[in-house]
Amino acid sequence: MIKKEFFDTYQGHQIYKYTIVGGITVSVVTLGARITNIFAPDKNGSLVDVALSMTSAEDIVEKGDYMGATIGRCGNRIGGDGFALNGKTYSIWRNGSAAHLHGGKVGFDKKIFSVLDEGENFVKMGYVSPDGEEGYPGKLDMTVKFTVDGADLIIEYGAVSDKDTLFNPTNHTYFNLNGESDGSILDNVLKLNADAYLPTDELLVPTGEVKPVSGTPFDFNDFKPIGRDIGAPDKDLTTAGGYDHNFCLTDRHFAIAYSTKTGIKMDCYTDLPGV
């Protein structure tokens, strides 16, 4: 079942929320094609919201740190003043001395998406990024589809560009399997199927080194609380202020996380090589 309702107004535009009800209940708003809620049953059968969000459009954009949003054109960071493609250099926005982050000054997280299609268990949203937006070449017609199938949430991305360009989208939901009001995820338990990670420079841009996780705080190949090693005296942890690194995956089923408080478990899958 899917339900549409008014959510809020942002910069003069009406924002709508689509709620998909299945084995879990997922809400997505048209501002940033953004997940605002994921309700899952706990070990007692009570529904717990495990996704962080805010109640107003202004707050989730200005204070939410990309919370729940679709990120584009490129998730994460691009160093320097731009990138080279097909022998041409493209200048992109950066925040002072920081790297280009999550698509630029006004990334997809701040865009209002159109609803292209909806069904009993899905909603498909789209945004057309004009040629040159945030410095990227090509008119990019992108889509993101959210489907709830039983207890599965499936997110699928697509795009067509009239020029060669960069496109590396992601979803930026913050999860707390204890429940979004619990306050900390450091006791959430994680297993991450990755044999290496990418160290970064001071701007958190990967240096190019591929470093084995074995013997480091980045080894989650066996279950451990997320916070167990987060304070270890490790240069890469210190530089990033915690875990903010790409992990090189060894399995399509790349992660399992669970809460001992609620009994809620999350299995994560991807067809991409890193997370």
Describe this structure in words.
The chain is mainly beta. It has 2 domains: 2-79 and 87-171, Beta-galactosidase, Chain A, domain 5 (Distorted Sandwich), CATH 2.70.98.10; 189-269, no CATH class. Helix content is 4%, strand content 40%. It has 2 helices and 22 strands. The chain has helices at residues 57-62, 235-240, and strands spanning 2-10, 13-21, 25-29, 34-41, 47-49, 70-71, 77-78, 82-85, 88-91, 100-101, 114-118, 122-129, 140-149, 152-161, 170-171, 189-192, 194-197, 211-212, 224-225, 247-249, 253-258, 265-269. The strands form 7 sheets. The chain has a 5-stranded antiparallel β-sheet with strand order 1-2-3-4-5, with no helix packed on it. The protein has a 4-stranded antiparallel β-sheet with strand order 11-12-13-14, with no helix packed on it. The protein has a 4-stranded antiparallel β-sheet with strand order 19-16-21-22, with no helix packed on it. Strand 3 and strand 4 form a beta hairpin. It starts with a strand and ends in a 6-residue tail after the last strand.
